[in-house]
Amino acid sequence: MRIRANARYKKDSSLAKFHATMRKAHVKRATPKWADKKALRLFYKACPNGYHVDHIIPLRGKYISGLHINSNLQYLSAKENMAKHNKYSSEYNLSTSARLPKQG
Length: 104
Fold this sequence. Notes:
This protein is mainly alpha-helical.
């Protein structure tokens, strides 16, 4: 699926730019003014190799939409994140300790 998407974006780079711009705008709208933007950046930078930063409650869910805040983020392996898609389910939630970057 990703290979097909990459080929489509290479064929029409304006489509990739459009999707990136739309996602950036949506993340901005989902980030409340009181959010700790520095902590968000640190969470993304601390993401281990082979993992993705995932929104526990998706920003654009079918029935529920979450906020772009630290308490709504977790690290998932790339495989788990791709399987989760844009869904919210307790089976995809990790424990709080697994979501926090390691100190040290």
